[in-house]
User: Fold this.
Amino acid sequence: MNRLMLFIAACALCAGGGRVAFAARGGGETAFSQDSAWADLRYLAGTIGPRPMGSPAERRALAFAVGKFREYGCQEAYVMPMTVAKGVNTSSGIAVGVLKGKTGRIIIIGGHIDSAGPEIPGANDDGSGAASVIELARVIGKSQHESTVVFCCWGGEEEGLRGSEYFAAHYPSLDSVALMLQIDMADGASVLLADPDASWQVSAPRWLVDASFDIFYNDLHAEGLVYPTQGATINSSSSGQSGSDHMPFLDRGIPAIDFTSDISFPIHTPLDNLSNFTPAGLPRCGDLVLRLFERFDGGVPSRTTEQYWLVVVGHHPFYFSHTLLRVFTVAALLLGLAALIAVRRRRPGSAAGPRAGWSIPKLVLVTLVVQACMWLSENVIGLIRGYRFPWANNFGTFVVLAVFCGLVGLWCMLRVARRMMLPADPSVYYVRAFVMLVLFVILMSWANAELAVYPSLALAALAIAMLVRPPALKGLFVALAPVPVVMLLFNEYMTLFQRLLAHLRLPSLATSVMWNGAFVLLYSLAALPFVFAFAAVYRDSGVDLFWLKKFGRPAGLLVAAAGAVVTGVILCGRPVYDRLWEPNVNITQFYRLGAGKGTVTLESGEYLDGVRFTCQGRDTLLAGRKTQITAPTCGDAAVSWLAVDTAVTPAERVTDSTAVFTRRLTLHPTLRPLQVTVSYRSALPFSAVSPWAKGSRQGLRPDTTKNAMFTWYSFPDTPLVVPVTFTLRDSQSVSETVEVTYDSLACGLAAARPLTYFTPRTIVDASSSFGAPRGGTP
Assistant:
């Protein structure tokens, strides 16, 4: 992840620093009790533990929340059941507590109570939010208030906001909701993110964002509330690849905001536990939400949402309407065009030097070489240290290494460039930079006005660099030109992205080469307009801008190479993983009913070197740079974990060529499974109807005419009966696959390695096929 082109970006990313707890309170603390919320969190994440959607543990947590709501004076407290969530069968729900006020106006305070998997305690994400909601019920329940308060602990957030979506679609008094306040992660180790956004640039009203920053800094005198402008711009430019339970309310026009602690700390792993949690974040979030409730208890300025591009400078939010952004984009295009006209007028006569057409491949080559040196520097350290992702815990330092290695590549290309005979006419380069940036602006504008700001800013800076005459100003503006695009590419969510990337499995050398090559090409494409921009400004300045010629001397290589070597030595001495960052190894046993013994697979994004694997008393120490191994299992114990019975009703003729019948599956797992999936596939279209929900936990959208999938997640009561009514053509064949996944291993397998966590799964499946022959039972 270390492919920055500019040292300024490296400095910005390196400034993130270590794990320092921010002050949760100043002189404006409230009655919110850290000790009380911490006790509730210990019960949720410690006593109950992992709480995936629909699990008995989640239901136990929901019941705990309901009991607390009753204890703290809620006149209504119950679990809203959710048996189907976005097409997936579940036993999840929402813990609801209603504290009635003097009016029917409703303010919702929420946090999700589920965790991301059966191994994940979810202390931060989001046991802390649920504990804060419970504590807020205690505090608010002690006083009189105008608004009716609805406290919600959502189930199923980790599976795609399923609980809050269900609540927003089914809560009968939704039209009375004036405000929704969400706490999703309340760790106190780092900054607190304000998230007023939903998908497609729908955002909370400005009065709510202003109030949040005003209360946090001026009333509570706390520190660390930020807004991730670039990350939020990308995330809200689609259906929302990440977000929280406030989004379904914003989508329905209800003012809502979420507060989330730093996502760069361990979430969605077993390391999201109580020992890695900083309790000071509980009152920081709790105080903020309580003060927001108190400010708007008597009513909100407006019940609406807005569209704007938000930038926070210091403690103050600034809003830019989409209309203003479009005006700026047009102005940037006109400014770029004006610079183009001016540069063309200043171009030299016909004796301008080498043919301009060859400038493109020459500078493309320069860009590719520099980017390859930056990108592949991490691979060198990885080869030396024996890690696939050596930057997992040292991202900032790898950025510095990339800069030095990029300078080495630049020095080499400067030496080669002496023989390239590049044109001296600055317009040759500016035209190409202008065209590429205009294309970026058009593409981004097609997406939305917020994304278009970034290439527009780059184009405006480049145009100014070409229009001003002092070389120092030219250098300043051409250096500023790539900054907006770099900030967008390396946004505030980069640490989360790098963590997800570290779980990527590349099964072969060819795949790894293709993956690295794709990133070199991607970042070269992003860098290319700025390479042409620098060449244009350099030629136009008439001086050795940025001392490029001096850098091209042997001393320049010595400095760059020395910096790369020193940085590499530092990285070789630093730990790659620690208690906050560990690689994951998946252990998956697979059995097919009727096929005898199955297989076991160990796979990881990181190398398996050093993993000690034990089966039936035999120890095997894995060695070498492999990310996946598969072997026969040490037994067929899991075959007894599942039995499948099938009953079929007689076919009824619908037409001369089609028949209808019901196939009734009864699944008998001996253990409660984590997930059950029943899928059907045919070469021809067919109809499959069932009282079971038709959907996929992963959000897959199969061809609904030739495929059908029925899923239950997680830990359903057994046995499971799945009736499906089919409409098939005569002699049409349909394949059926029953896949049952368990969160434990069937036979005696164990694995261990320091600073590594393991995810065990056993999958048992059964396959068959059937059809609807003419006049009879299938």
